[in-house]
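Justification of resources, computational component.

The compute hours requested in this renewal are based largely on the per-chain cost of generating structure records like the one below. Each record pairs the submitted sequence with a full structure-token output. That output is archived, and it is also reused by downstream analysis tasks.
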Amino acid sequence: MPAILIIDDNEGIRTLWSEVLEEEGHEGAQAESGVVGVKIARTRALDLISTDIMIPDKDILETLVEIQSHNPTAKIIAVFRWRQHA
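The structure output for this chain reads:
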């Protein structure tokens, strides 16, 4: 089954996606920031990366370039979540 990395600073979203993916038999990994996502990508073969565009610690484009340098065939889904401020 595909190995999937979820990068999002929202723990609830990471947990929800990981649970859904694991129920379907996929290997899931979670990262709360771009820095952690790159660390995971260096040590694991990934098939898919799903990431929020607004992530802490590292620019999203820099993060994705680094991840793809270690996982050149991995597909990427970049998600933009609108965050309203009170």
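The chain has a mean pLDDT of 92. The longest strand covers residues 3-7.
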